[in-house]
Amino acid sequence: MLGDDEDVFDSVTWESPNTPAYDDSEPSTTRGPGFRQTTFDSNEDPLQPKWEGYLITSVRDPVKELAETKDAYVSYLVSAKTNLPIFSTPNPSSRRRFQDFVFPACVVPALPDKHRLEYITGDRFSPEFMERRRLELHRFLQRLARHPTLQRSTLVRAFFESTEWHVHMHQHVAHPPMNEHSQGFIDNLSDTLLNAFSRVRKPDERFLTMRENVDKFEEGLVLSERHFGRIRGRTSDGDPESGEDLTADYHDLAVAVQGLGFLESGITDPLNHFSNTLLEFSALLRHTTQTTTDPLLTHLHSLLTYSHANRAVLKLRDQKQLDFEELSDYLSGVTAERDRLSAVISGHAGSTGLGIGAYLKDRVDAIRGADDDRTRVERMKKLDAKIKELEDAVTTAHETSDAFSDETLREQAIFQYSKEAEMKEALGNLADGQIEFYKAAMEEWDRIIPVIQRIRVDV
């Protein structure tokens, strides 16, 4: 972020090299938020993000490496298609393991949580877990690729192209200031203190609106996650004893119908067909849960962490403005003290009208014997030097706050583009999954209807 004292984007190439792109035309498959080529125009809004090209990423083909050793791990094939000139090839690719997906000091959500139950139970090499992890890492890289600054950073380029990625990674994370746990604790503590004792006195309406939108978005995500979590539990929670597992209920009904078929000798075959249809429908429900509901829940949770990262940027912007306001107040206090001393030296009323604090300070100085003019002149010289230093600091803080605000506006626009793309993807996958489920269910029931209709009932 601009204006931050830390090298937040120390690995980012802010201006791409003056080399020709691989392909000036944008492929039709890349149209959408973040995958665009910006046409530079002097009349464009300078606070809008600018894309210099596209970067389409994918994570696939998980492979268990060193399978028979204690150092076993899973590697993924990461590849990309791009026309960004910073890359040496339009189709970079490499194999990376989970711990390689580390991009320090970037405004992106955290990686998928590594401390999962699968790591404790030893099931982290199961196909289901590796596929879920692949999707999470794929989404992580997509967010990097949608960011017009991060997509052309030297660190991202090295991630896809370098044969010595561990060296690049070590250069950026070899000396972290503190471990992740303590960093998170201190961040949360500082946020709490900021919210409890300090408030921005002149809030910008633009950022107040953004914060309200973030609150509403996260509230919607939490409610959606809770709703689909209940649907998942009632449909296929994996616990037949809970009484909430619909797939188990259909399975039990199939067994009961099959048992009834043995008793009704005249319609045994149709009942067996009906029982098989119930089993197929039960399996279809379980399949839909695994391929549609579970990925949706994972995506909703991932979007929530992404929104948390976005919220953190807004909090940091408030802190920058608060730094400026507090420095300005400090400067005003020091200037008032210097003016008070000047008034005393010139024979004016001294602390009159400056409040009880100034009066008490005069009394303390008198007791200490520091109320003579020579002492006051020395103090004024020190205050003049401090005022000059504070004026420079206030100017710097003001420039930093303004620059950080501008960069935050661009970050919010980027987040909005990415959020729209991901919501479209999540809801599209949900719709496709539901359509597939109902089509398959209709086919199953359509096949059994003629069988049932052939049953003759003598009245």
UniProtKB/TrEMBL annotation:
BP-aspect Gene Ontology terms: autophagy of mitochondrion; endocytic recycling; piecemeal microautophagy of the nucleus; protein transport; reticulophagy
Molecular function as annotated in GO: phosphatidylinositol binding
Keyword Transport (UniProt): yes
InterPro entries: AH/BAR_dom_sf (IPR027267), PX_dom (IPR001683), PX_dom_sf (IPR036871)
Bilayer topology: Peripheral membrane protein
Top-level taxon of the source organism: Eukaryota
Major site of localization recorded for this protein: cytoplasm
GO CC annotations on file: early endosome; endosome membrane; phagophore assembly site
PANTHER family the record matches: SORTING NEXIN-4
Name listed for the protein in its UniProt record: Sorting nexin-4
